Amino acid sequence: MADGVGTWNVLEWTQVTTPKHGLEKFLLEAEDVIVHKTGVVLLNTDEAGILAVTNFRLLFVSRASKCIIELGTIPLTTIEKITDDVKLSSVPRNSEKRELLQVIGKDMRVVTFAFLPKTMQRSAVMDALKRYRKPVQLWELYAFQCGPSKFKNSNPKLRLLKEYYRIFGKRLLHLPEDESYIISNDRWRMTTINSNYTLCPTYPSVLVVPKSISDEELLQAASFRTSRRIPVISWCNPGSGAVLARSSQPRVGPFMSSRNHSDERLVAGLCSSSADSSASRRKLYIVDARPIANALANNVKGGGSESSSNYFKSEVVFLGIDNIHVMRESLSRLREYVDTHGTTSSDGTSSFLRNGGSTWGGGNLSSMSGSASTLGDTGWLTHVQNVLSGAAWIAARIALESASVLVHCSDGWDRTTQLVSLASLLLDPYYRTFKGFQALVDKDWLAFGHPFADRMGIPTVTDLASSSSTEMLTRQSSMGNASSSPLHSQSGSNLAGARGGATHNQASDNISPILLQWVDCVFQLQRLYPCAFEFSSRFLVDFLDAVLSCRFGNFLCNCERERQQAGIAEVCGCIWIYLSDLRFTGGRSHEHFNLFYDPSRHEGPILPPAAALAPTIWPQFHLRWACPSESHASEFESMWRTMNKKYSEMSKAKEVAESKAKDLKSKTESLSEELQKEKQKSISALATVNQVRRENLAIKRAVQSLGCRVNLSTNQSHTSSDLMASTYSDDPSDRSPHDLSVSISAIEDAGVVSGGNPLSRVCESMCPFRTKDGCKWPNEQCAQLGSQFVGLKADFGAFENLSIDDRYFDS
């Protein structure tokens, strides 16, 4: 770090202990700090901070950035080894003043922490790690303390049945309470003979077997197979009827002399074209994953391999894949190689500068092949290639020959699981999707009893009383010589609790990276077929990290029976919901999605030739700690992902802009319609006003024609002509309110005032119907109305010519 910022040299003694850890914002749900120490330096990066041991992980927070340092933060169950006896290949400055602690992880990381001397910091952290890294009871794991939270688990049995239904070409929406979900076709059937796990404790409760084989025959065949793991169907081709089956080794014994007719009929049923046992049979390959020498050695212990003469139209093939001990040591050598030759190793020194710069990559400059041979000596890539080649060979037999294949190793839960699941991935494009990958792991790894607790070195539930000592011993057979196992020397009465209370040495001896190796194989296939997988390499890395952390319950215990006994599905979270939630937050641009996925290019099986199965080191997983800059995806993929992310953001922005434009257009059209309506109302109102003006003028003229004068007056000084003009003006400014009064006065007649008979004079002078001969209306009694005409001079002819709208006279 520049100028020693945050390093050991700038720390003060007052910063070594603090009364409060201040780590609350970094803790997960139900995560508690057990012990924390300040002033600790992560030697890999020479960065100082707070180191805390929680009930879930070893947590390191940088003093400078106040952020979690991923390299120094590792779940407790991911830690494989801790040691305070650290020997550095290059001695750092002031190393004699430091107390060192090295943490080796199952995820390829090797980190070293430096503590101030004589402070008891290292001892406190060591004690906490020894206590909580390997809990005695299953219930002490963080997964039980955290609970399901928002990652609630679904029914694992229902998930398995849905996959069986998919293989049968049907759908299952829910799990009935009775056994009405059991289905079959003309070749295969589902059976619940193992519903109580009495047929085989490490098999799932529901199995798929040939329709021609009865449950009684299954029980008879179980005694002939190690751990009672009989041949059952894992996957079948719905078109050709060819199947991919799995089992454990047969108990043929020395000289391969033992036989079991029920087992032979069961294996023969895998090759039948229909339920009729007399129908023509297809070719059967019996694939033994072990080296042939190991298989022959198991004959002495009662195991062994099949004889093709006892199984009709069969051929036995050995793949030569080594056991779990070889794989564990191989990964250990690979981890050491990567740490030694990485950009920065666990001692904080670059591989280019190690040993004073006289060597490169651990080898002399005159012999550059030294480092390459070291990678080859790890043997890891060779083992990966063996598994890949075996799975590709199995897939080709089923896809090209329509042959059935039965796969087994010793117990059928390590190498068998790798081969069967990898071959299924090659054969079925559904397994190359997110949902299919989950279904594949749930079926072949979880339901069929890969012993995750043993392989990860974590506790499991105490054995049920029905578990036999034979099962415990045979589980040890896949780990080497059973006679050398500590369990082999124990009495039968002690075997019942052996798996739940295994010693530290036993647990360490059982640990092996079988799942990690299989996921590495999946990555190699992704590299060969970049358009065939919906998920990316980053998804595989996060999947492995979640499994190793034991944060979720899916991969706890050794089999379905034990997980059911512990109530895992009800009390622990689900890893699949967690991974799905991660993808949901990022959408299609999330790094779990493969940008190049094109299902139309690989709609059927993918069958890689042997020449193409040359694996490379997996940079995203193997190099992420020692070579962080080189561990990222290729530059082209990174650029493509960046461009795709920007395109996604621009597409979203475009959708938002189009939505806003659509809203604005809709509002504009609405306002335009309202404006048109207002304009129509205005035109109509103006026409009404003009009509009223004309009619009012007509009324005025009519009244004036009757001999009357119209007088308009207001409380303001306006003339009659001004008021009339204002009243009928079109200018809105002239619409000022007035107290308008209208008065009509009659025009006086001079003759009226001069005397005489008023009625006679009125009639004679004003009535147009009065003649010399008399009145034309004698019967109308107009004399009674005379008083209304006194003093008025009217023109009755105007009334004949006047037309006035009746509405002006309505009350």
Can you describe what's shown?
The chain is α+β, with helices and mostly antiparallel strands and 811 residues long. The chain is 39% helix and 12% strand. The chain has 27 helices and 20 strands. The strands form 6 sheets. It has a 7-stranded antiparallel β-sheet with strand order 4-3-2-1-7-6-5. It has a 5-stranded mixed β-sheet with strand order 10-11-16-12-13, covered by helices on one side. A two-stranded antiparallel sheet has the order 8-9. Strand 1 (33-42) and strand 2 form a beta hairpin. The radius of gyration is 48 Å and the shape is extended. Residues 475-494, 719-730 have a biased composition (Polar residues). It comes from Rhynchospora tenuis. Pfam families: Myotub-related. One of its GO terms (biological process) is phosphatidylinositol dephosphorylation. Belongs to the protein-tyrosine phosphatase family. Non-receptor class myotubularin subfamily.
